[in-house]
Amino acid sequence: MPPLFRHAYYEISVADPMQLPQASGAEIAFAGRSNAGKSSAINTLVGHTRLAFVSKTPGRTQLINLFRMKNGAALVDLPGYGYAEVPEAVRRQWQGLLEHYLTCRQALSGLVLIMDARRPLLELDRQMIRWFATTGKPIHCLLTKADKLSRQEQSKTLEATRRAASADFPEVPLTVQMFSSLKKTGMEETERIVGNWLKEKAPGQRGEGQEPNTSTEAEAPAQGGKAGEG
Question: Could you tell me if residue 214 is inside a domain?
């Protein structure tokens, strides 16, 4: 089977949720703290060094960026959260983008949550899980920068994170893996899991996603903390 994410191409960026086009296929969202290595992970998966912009300036990604994959599905890069040194108005804009997209977009098949393997399940990450859990859709956690840990540390971190996630979010369909953009490890596992989400998406299901999820009033993750890479 050909790589799932390879040869994805840029389609559109929007600052206003109402500018999102009608979905033409299933969508996979990527979210994470501003310093967790989200852009690097996306670039590694698609095999392109600059598809998602990697910057040393925290909070660079302020838009919803949509990349189209060859199978018709879309990879959706969401604004990084957790960066404190941006204006309050900008933080509110990011929160609105995240809230509208993640709770209203019917085409969304699941969320890939990016966390630094050295600091997994921080409070903002937990808030994101609790918030997105209201949709009933799956979450797959990539513990990035795994190359910063020894093999033994990776094993212990993975086991501890899985155990904590299972204990704290027992009702959430959540999986966890190690990932390294530098070593390009973990790509096959990510593609397998996300590929299964796309297979489970009902054929012919429409994905306009403009109707809000009214079953639970979710609270978006609070903004705060330090940041680095987007």
Answer: no
